[in-house]
Design a protein that fits this description.
The protein is 47% helix and 13% strand. The protein is built from 9 helices and 7 strands. With 197 residues, the protein is an alpha/beta fold. The protein has one domain: P-loop containing nucleotide triphosphate hydrolases (Rossmann fold, 3-Layer(aba) Sandwich). The radius of gyration is 17 Å and the shape is globular. The protein has a 3-stranded antiparallel sheet. The protein has a two-stranded parallel ribbon with strand order 1-2.
Length: 197
């Protein structure tokens, strides 16, 4: 959803997950530090993620706005954003029941080469296991295996769910009910943000 809104508004999507995965692939110091947390389904420590986001938001393409995808995930991260003087216009929470999340994530496949994301049911590739965009090999991310997804959901409920109250108290929380079809969730997300075609 973040990429679609990003294209509509012509502003960048800042995905902490993608930045961390790039660091993992490049075997940078930050990537190696994050690996053990990710493999266990845990959140990467706040100080690491906050540093990444702060550096990224200082870049020129963020001057007219940006979309944060996967950040903040904890109250300290949200508070750090405020301390940086960054005011958010809206926070979109796409609600999906845990059982559906497990099903969706365990079917997700990511290209090892270009990072494109597909799904065995909802967004299949023309040829199984091969990226439609670049021909690279598709893999299941280590954090998409069902047991790890369940652990991630426990972490979400404990550490991220409190953000709903935090942003609701600031009157910027928009909750969208995730739909079976991506296009339906997209339509509801754009409506919630008052973005029209």
């Amino acid at each position: 959803q973040a990429e679609i809104v990003s294209q509509k508004l012509n502003i960048p999507t800042i995905s902490t997950g993608a930045m961390i995965r790039e660091a993992l692939k490049a075997k940078t110091e930050m990537g190696l530090a994050a690996k053990s947390y990710i493999d266990a389904g845990e959140l990467v420590p706040d100080e690491v993620v906050i540093g990444i986001v702060k550096d990224r938001l200082a870049q020129d393409d963020c001057k007219n706005g940006f979309i944060l995808d996967g950040f903040p995930r904890t109250l300290p991260q949200a508070e750090a954003l405020e301390q940086m003087g960054i005011a958010l216009d809206a926070v979109v929470n796409i609600f999906v029941p845990d059982e559906k999340i497990i099903k969706r994530m365990s079917g997700r496949r990511v290209c090892d080469t270009c990072g494109a994301t597909f799904h065995v049911v909802y967004k299949p590739t023309a040829k199984e296991g091969v990226c439609d965009k670049c021909g690279g090999t598709l893999k299941t991310r280590s954090d998409d295996f069902p047991a790890v997804v369940k652990d991630r959901l426990e972490v979400y409920h404990k550490q991220t769910e409190p953000l709903e109250r935090y942003y609701a108290d600031r009157s910027i929380l928009l909750t969208v009910i995730g739909q079976e079809e991506l296009k339906d969730t997209t339509r509801l997300t754009l409506e919630a943000l008052h973005i029209h075609d």
